[in-house]
Request: fold
Amino acid sequence: MTREQDEALEAVFARYRGQPGATIPLLQEAQEIYGYLPQEVIRRIARELGVPVSKVFGVATFYAQFHLKPRGRHIIRVCQGTACHVRGSATILEAVEEELGISRGETTADLRFTIEPVACLGCCGLAPVMMVNEETHGRLTKDQVAKILAQYP
Reply:
């Protein structure tokens, strides 16, 4: 954690100080600052709110939008919806895992990629589909995976 990040978090605390119901906005803005929610940040938020750490941790673990571990610069979302499943999304996910040497839900050691299987990306006509950040890659075959991932430094 850098000094700049800590100062930004203090500014967030100042904006929400005394406001009821600030837990989720504080967690959201803290995650924007740090990229995830380090344990120390969760403890600082709990102190700021005057609540037990377990309460803040409970909120952070309840909502899928919050992350307790560092994530990659590039988030790979592989669709697991019905259309994608029928058209081979399992082999796409396996190819991504094989190419990166990590499993679903994990991040590469260099913090380049994080793999997140998702229930549906809403691109059924392009099945099977994966997104890297905000870019959609459809009608995939496992042979295309390495070339696609190479586009993201």
Q: What stands out?
A: The beta strands are 74-79, 113-118, 130-132, 135-137. The longest helix spans residues 3-16. Residues 74-149 form a domain with the Glutaredoxin fold (CATH 3.40.30.10). The chain is about 45% helix and 10% strand.
